[in-house]
Amino acid sequence: MQKITPYEITKNPFTLIGKQWAMITTCQGEKINTMTASWGGVGIMWGKPAAFLFIRPQRFTRELMDGSEKFSVCFLPESQRQAMTYCGKASGRNEDKLAACGLTAGRLEGVPVLDQSELVLICKKLYRQRLDPACLLEKEIDATWYPNQDHHYMYIAEIETAYIK
Fold first, then answer.
1. Residue 68, class by beta-carbon neighbours within 10 Å (0-12 exposed, 13-18 middle, 19+ buried)?
2. CA–CA distance, 131 with 148 (Å, rounded to integer)
């Protein structure tokens, strides 16, 4: 993969995250896990290129994320849609999700990444906070998206580097 700066990414973030989907990949020790995300964004925060991610509290990836300083956001080709769908539904808590769906992981800059990626963002956590339902200005969001009151944790992370295939 070729190392680039976040400013050199030319793909549309709405398409990347909302349609192609992102794979949030993290680890604790040698335990690597990934999850599919179709919510999130990229932009500038505190003068740095940043990724904004949202993970439900019950997700195993959140547990691993909370125990690590860095993680990756990987974007896979459409040919991996079935694997991405699996990773969005299955938990890595009880199985090796990567092996189950045929994905493999390596490391870039010491951070776990999916080998099948077309684009990888290497991110460093800067901020974490659980979404507060009292702050929702459109109350139907709470009823529609959080009937179990499992409000996402929001992570803001600096995008330190990016890699493209």
1. middle
2. 14
Q: Which helix (H) or strand (E) holds 28?
A: strand 22-28
Taking the C-alpha atoms of residue 117 and residue 99, their distance in angstroms, rounded to an integer, is: 16
Which token pair is 118? 């077309």
Structure tokens given for 21: 């989907």
Predicted confidence (pLDDT) per residue in 8-21, tens digit: 999 999 999 999 99
What is the spatial distance between Cα 67 and Cα 35, in angstroms, rounded to a whole number?
A: 16
Half-sphere exposure (Cβ direction) of 135: Cα atoms closer than 13 Å: 5
Q: What residue type is 145 in one-letter code?
A: W
Cβ(57)–Cβ(88) below 8 Å: no
Nearest to 39 by CA among 56, 26, 64, 27: 56
In this predicted model, what pLDDT tens digit does every residue of 56-100 receive, in sequence order?
999 999 999 999 999 999 999 999 999 999 999 988 888 999 999
Amino acid type, 34: T
113 C-beta neighbours (distance < 10 Å), count:
24
pTM of the model: 0.94
